[in-house]
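Good morning,

Both structures are done.
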Amino acid sequence: MYRTDAINALRKRMEQMGVSAIIIPTNDPHFGEYTQNRYKVREWLSGFTGSAGTLVITLKSAALWTDSRYFVQAASQLQGTHIKLMRLKMEGTPTIAEWILGQYPEGEMVAIDSSLFPYSEYEGLRKELAPCTVALIEDIFDSLWEGRPQLVFNPVQYMDVQYAGESPKSKHQRVVDALGVKDERFAYIISMCDDVAWLCNIRGTDIEYNPLVQSYAIVTNTATHLFANLSSISDEVRDKLLSEGVELHPYDSFTRILGEIPAGTLRICQKSKITVRDWKALDIPGARFMDDPVLGGTVNHFKAIKNNWEKAGFEKAFLADGVAWCKVLKYIDDAIVTGGQLDEYTIGEKFAQFRGEDENYRGESFEPIVAFGPAGALPHYSATAENSQIVGKNNFLLMDTGAHYVFGTTDTTRTIPIGELTPQQRRHYTLVLKGMVRLSMAKFPKNTRGSQLDILARGPLFNDGVMYFHGTGHGIGHYLCVHEGPQSVRMEENPVTLEPGMVLSNEPAVYIEGEYGIRTENVLLVEQWKFNKMNEFYGFRTYTLVPIATSCVEWDLLDSQEAEWVKEYNRRVYETIAPLLDKETAQWLSEKYL
């Protein structure tokens, strides 16, 4: 809900501070995709609920920048407000700096919260906003947001080596070796909660849909220092961490401890992953800094390369998830056959219900996307109990859901036909499938970047004059965040190369606004394929075990290899999943998908 009174109160505060504009991001001090409710100031002020966006309030006006995933949603939620929608990467859309300078060309004060902006972005804003001056402020919203949520700290769980495959002590040593400065005193600063979780083998429930602990870490020559809510750590977990060389500190002491690091200690961090507040705490007279020597971050890179235990865990997770998916698909099919009424929200709840039958299930990995017809054209649409469509006829039902299990995280999208489809719908469905299959079958040399493979997924759609604007593939965590880096497959250049052990999604799509959306997503493991005098070559192995609808495939649009891949994939799903299903469901799976 757009809050006129709150924005007016904010403007009064800005006038008192001598500030003409304030930039309000989505993130928290850890720069994760999801944040606790306390940090959802942008959502509270604007009413826009998407997971990405930046709100700018000036004394004169307001605007919100978001990406293509949320154009339709943002336009709807901002309707009737005085906030202008700015569509990122679209021709004619000004940058935040350009828009502010358009109102204040002579220069004014522009405020940012020093605990919410990475230092690299702060450096860029100072240049881009000149002659405006960037003013660093502390959080001012406690006094403006009545009933503002407090931070939540839930119990910390320790992840045993049988699931993680490596101890915190071993990970600490690997990090020290990779940094290459073990002969001098150093402090390696880690702000990302998922990096901390991987490094210390801890998991939690502090952040919705993410098994994370609100935490920081500092790696030194001799120990890993964990900053977390100490009352959330049981004696058993504390003893395990201490035995692994992990020293414990209060969560809210992190910035203070940074300021106490001696000037002679080398500070290692990424400017893009440390807040302005924390950088300035480190930057005392005589302080020395060094960039993280590993592209994408040392811990982030290690986390992306799954070990054998983690890879085996993913197999178990996708097996369990495949069973749940088949039960949901049969539930939908039974309702259609009997003329029963289906709605989007209930289908989403069914996923959690069937997944919950597995004792290793630990919750959904993101808010379920179950969208019928035109809603499918909204890439991040989510139905609610109060606002859920009935599943009708003669269109697509798109379902994108994932789950956390103690041995892995899943993310799968399937689009299924309901009733009769138009020739264009069938063609678009097949072209999306063709792109997914082409990327799945790819073989590529060592040092290949994801951007070099992206055309395999997009090419079939490009040839029809259609496209999707989001990335084709993102990294996936091992019982961690469903979106992780540093690897990706997308049009934009990412210098990180794909390496064996990396796990990533493969999700081409097409969205026809007001009509339908189609997305087919599997999860892939990068693995070694062949080595010869020419090079070392890699390929993909598909983890996902969910059948692909073929009744709407235009087979003449697939070449023989692609068609055989689809048929063989469904055969493999059946042979793997059927023994874990009851007889009736197994028979349905055979009749429907083979």
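Second structure follows.
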Amino acid sequence: MKKILLKLLAFTPLLVACDDLFSPAPENIRDIESMYEEPSYAQGFLANAYLLLPYQAMPGSDLATDDAVTNENDNNYLKMATGAWASNSDPMSQWQGRYNAIQYVNIVLESCDKIAWATEEPLRTMFNDHFKGECYAMRALHMYYLLQAHGGRDASGALLGVPIHLTSEDKSSDFNQPRETFQKCVEQIMFDIDNALELLPYVCNDVATDSEIPAKYQAMGATMAGYNRAFGSHMKGKIDGRVVEALRAQVSLLAASPAYNDASGVTWAQAADNAATVLNRIGGIAGMDQDGWKWFANTSEIGNLNAGANPAEIIWRGNITDDKDWETSNYPPSLYGNGRVNPTQNLVDAFPMANGYPITDVAAGYSSDDPYTGRDPRLDAYIVLNGSKMGSTNGEIITGTYGTNSDVVNKEGNKSTRTGYYMRKLLRPDINLNPQSSTTQKHYVARIRYTEIFLAYAEAANEAWGPTGTGSHAYSAYDVIKAIRQRAGVGTDNDDSYLESIKNDTNKMRELIRNERRLELCFENFRFWDLRRWKVDLTKLNETARGMQISKNADGTLKYTEMPKVEERSYKDYMYYGPIPYSETLKWSKLQQNQGW
């Protein structure tokens, strides 16, 4: 798949204006009809929708939440969080990228039935079905990210989505289109998802006999060889039925959430059911990957991945790269990194004790004089603490003021941590950045993980049926959270007595589920969106990022002093929903802006 996409980069235009999109440079002029006899040309259009996928490799939006700050002074997320978020300055905007991708998808979708995918039937039909299914799926995906970023309330309080584009546009198109309601946008996404699921295989795999071919293609006379050409293992890595089912769960969770559920048409029970569809494919809780919470550090697993293959934790991932870029950005300075992402004390405090109790609970056994001992194992796995070991040399990282290098908090400009912590999650532990002997290692972007869907089920099931209710399924929110905590080593010595104490309280279970989501998905660009779809109190959006300064007493013991104001947030009450780009509202009179922007 990677080689195919690289070959198709030549078809990617520079999308800087409508004229660039609809009138390519003279040396590249080819009409749409050219793809009818040249399937690779059509594939190039669809490849552009893949190239425009919105997934980020590193934390971005997390830097605008209570989970992290950055030492990069000109970072756009820092500016946004501290008061510069505006409709003409929106680092969260998905408008141009998503609509550009949808334009490519619509061009292919309109042409699919005319393209000579193969000279004989039923091979032509199978190829046509596959690419048409991809188009429906990609349009739904890009529409979902548009809706998440730009759906919101107009001046009257009505919940609006975005304009729905179901046909390709050209210079004669009427671009002055109003926004559809949020519910109509959700319904359109679900319609595209249903169409995609009818056409795509659950996974792209080779069949070994003709009898394994789906009945509808058997009836056409399809052969094993033909089916494998259209839907086989060489197609792995592209969007498939498994990804589409997970996308449906994501859309449902968004629509059922407090910020949207009054006018989305989606209930918590539907969101739970859609997540369960994904999870039941792997046997529910029994299929949970026990190493899934540290997927990024499973080096042998990553090294042995075949093209298109996924580890047990991963539903969909990006291509494997062999580099050291992530580590260069985020390793501490003593390991030749730039320490860009600095976890906050707020996030550190969210990790419970290993016995499962929050550190604020009297039963936790937490000591502010020894704050990292006896904590949830995920804390040290995801965050570099004072005294942690890191990197291929297993060097000790001292962020306390008694340290002797630039790892010390606020020691050196835009390289040292501002909070007393560095990020460990997502980084390979076996990279050496020393210029004299630097190494690279394999990485991939986890686009959708099973843990995300388990947490989506837990959240929706708790709201729909309570902590221990199961609906029509074999497991509850309580069962999921217990399994997630247990695999990380939380509450294993006391049968998770904290969880047991709240398992009949929907409100307390909601708090725990949200906290588990915060921990399990930290630094993966979920927190910003979660806080807003939950419609948390404005004080939570504006929670000041805190840090920890550690010094030595005269007797050599460590003294922990909280830094209460590392970075203040400045969000307004209308910022639960993002803006429509200011430039678009200037151009189109029918395009309503969200309230407050």
